[in-house]
């Protein structure tokens, strides 16, 4: 004990001279010296320091070891930090155990506690009704304009939910509330979380083109994290979002590089859910690039890593990428098996999820050569959800099937009107979606003799295809909307 006391004194003296001393190191020696009260502020400070550098396991161990002996004034702060450390690892439900059981919370921690709780619950949201209620809660915290650090989890929750609900009005509302925050902080983690939220919301509104500085700011943050050697959930989110932005402009190789970094980060922080997400994104990129064996492997990895209780859109998406890879390689029976049976796990999900899932199943049937069943399935889905895209991320897929269904008159005049409406919104969409929409228009106009600008659309289609991997042309041909 005396030795630890001497070491603690030396460390305190070094800190007084302005030297950087890790808070957890100071706290540990103070505890070992029997100076528990003196250790507490260093425990809290050191836990935050460890979190900022990505050492969430270290934070968890330190706080859990000390929790029972903390004073009443310190314990709630420690609980909030421990909740953050568990969320960093993707242990969302477990994190709630540390903040939901307290009846009385200090006034200065109430926002942080509520913010962390709504973030944890947003990751478990199933269905539009639950998602909408959680979004209401998250936005009430964001709009209260409390201290930025406390409300960041609510900002992230809101961005997750506006994407999940695919509601442009809510997404634009969030953008207006959050966009002004970014220039008012120099904190690296807060800046990273804000830009992830802004890009997520902007992608749900098709408004990324209105924020031309986002890509540059995102790349700068990625460089800062890399140079600092930080490997945490915030950096995962940055790389994951960057992968999506690069894929959106058709640069799947660069997107793949970011998704691989994200996957490595998820594995290092021990979060299978994030690892499953990044594996699915890797499968997507490989499929777009025509690397179907790799796509199958990564889709299987995404399914393997998905938590056993996760029966969500993300799992359905991974099954689709597995089926896609198999279908493109001529493995017809395994491909069909990958999308069977039609699960009821998406019951209650937003309509865009049901639309996208159904149309992707039609895609697999088409790739497997069963065009009749594919068109029948697409018509069923469009009639039961909407004959317009309910999410911009699947505008191209929806446009293809509107065209295919309209050829036989199954959608009546409404099909052509819906396709024209999609074309009017083409600017700002992902490059692949633009190519799919244009291919669908040209294909349908050739068959019906309608349309007044077929040559212009053909020219624009060729410009899009020239910027995409060559494998895309073969895929669109197999999907029945691109002819030589």
Descriptive overview:
With 484 residues, the chain is mostly helical. Helices cover 71% and strands 0% of the residues. Helix 19 packs antiparallel against helix 20. The termini are far apart.
Describe the structure in brief:
With 484 residues, the protein is an all-alpha fold.
How would you state the average pLDDT, rounded? 89
Ranges where pLDDT stays below 50 over 5 or more residues in a row are none
The largest β sheet comes out as: none
The SSE string, one letter per element, is HHHHHHHHHHHHHHHHHHHHHHHHH
Strand content: under 5%
Number of DSSP E strands = 0
Helix content: over 70%
Number of helices: 25
| Cα end-to-end separation | 82 Å
Give the class from helix and strand content and strand pairing: mainly alpha
User: How would the global form be characterised?
Assistant: elongated
- Whole-angstrom Rg: 25 Å
Features:
elongated; mainly alpha
Task: Set out the fold topology.
Elements: H1 2-16, H2 23-32, H3 36-52, H4 56-66, H5 75-88, H6 92-96, H7 110-122, H8 128-142, H9 148-165, H10 168-178, H11 188-205, H12 214-228, H13 233-248, H14 252-268, H15 272-288, H16 292-305, H17 313-328, H18 332-338, H19 351-367, H20 371-384, H21 395-407, H22 412-424, H23 431-448, H24 454-466, H25 471-478
